[in-house]
Amino acid sequence: MNKLFYTVFSFFPKRSLGMSKITATILSICLLLAGGSAMAQQGSMSEPVDRAKILTAPGVFGAFSTYKIRYEYYKLSSAERKGAADEVMAVVDKHKDKVIVDAYLTRGFEAKSDYFLRVHAYDAAAAQAFLLDFRATRFGMNSGVTESLVGITKALNYITKDKSPDLNKDLTGTTYSGDAPRFAFMIPVKKGAEWWNLTDEQRLKEMETHTLPTLAYLGNVKRKLYHSTGLDDTDFITYFETNDLGAFNNLVLSLAKIPENKYNVRWGNPVVMGTIHSIAEVVNTLSVGQ
Ligand code: HEM
Asked: Using 50, 70 and 90 to split pLDDT, how confident is the model at 19?
């Protein structure tokens, strides 16, 4: 669009300081086109964000936050807590054209949290706007944040068609085939200076060694990677969904045994395990029980 804008303006000589009607009309068309293409990228203003698209696109902002419900929340009358899910759902609905929200129940699994949210948006400010409105709900204001991490999605860096064609083929050729996953894990990973000072070829070799043992788990573990270097105190947020905790345990063990692990300076801390629910279910369960 910028190119079109500049072309149109350099095409019309600056004959007078006032804008001619033709120039103004062309400018309006350009602005309309610009708005149109931005909306096409992010979904129209009133349509909900396309979930399948945003979850596979590069350049998407992801915010993970874990929460512990304050004791005072349970001093509210049950009638007040009963309305909490509707209030939160109204906020989810308000932001649905820019943001998708996934919710997980961690109570019973984690000491420091009762639930966590995973928020995706094409624009980080839209994710923040949702989280601000969420924290202004009765449920949100009674939830203390115990961890918060942000990152962005990217295209593959290493296991690409060009750099590692065989592994790329295996990686993209196998899809999840288990039952609908019930469990999710969020694990931050940070690598030290030694890792970042390896050559591109050395890092590629290490990532090939990483990928090889993981391929066997593609059928029962779903994975998603967020890059956080510079955006947060970690380098990566790794996210997994599975129904098979034994397989997940074996997968992580297989990665603990490879040289790449020596470069990790943070692994977990926290590892967050939750069950996958709708946000209404999470709010209801923690507000009034199941
Ligand atoms: C089904 C299981 C898994 C598969 C198929 C898998 C595969 C991959 C692949 C192909 C990459 C390279 C991405 C690229 O080319 O840019 C990668 C990166 C990464 N994986 Fe895994 N992985 C799995 C499980 C795990 C687990 C359990 C962890 C740790 C909790 C993990 C941590 C990472 C990290 C931190 C990176 C980024 C490394 C970097 O760019 O330096 N992965 N994974």
From this structure: very low
Kindly list the domain boundaries of the chain, sorted by start residue.
Answer: 2-42, 48-290
Kindly report the protein residue whose alpha carbon is nearest to atom 27 of ligand 1: 252
Q: Is 163 in the pocket of ligand 1 (CB under 6 A)?
A: no
Q: Do the Cβ atoms of 272 and 186 come closer than 8 Å?
A: yes
Which whole number is the average pLDDT over 113-140? Answer: 98
Per-residue pLDDT reduced to its tens digit, 95-105: 999 999 999 99
Mean of the per-residue pLDDT values for the chain?
88
> How much is the pLDDT for 46?
72
Q: Which of 231, 221, 239, 236 lies closest to 118 in space, CA to CA?
A: 239
Q: Model's pTM, two decimal places?
A: 0.86
For atom 38 of ligand 1, which residue has the closest CA?
207
| Residue 107 CA to ligand 1 centre (angstroms) | 27
Task: Calculate how far, in angstroms, residue 205's C-alpha sits from the geometric centre of ligand 1.
Answer: 13
CATH class of 48-290: alpha beta
Indicate whether residue 288 lines ligand 1 (CB < 6 A). no
> 139: Cβ below 6 Å to ligand 1?
no
* Mean per-residue pLDDT, 72-81: 95
Active site residues: 223
Q: Tell me if 186 CB under 6 Å of ligand 1.
A: no
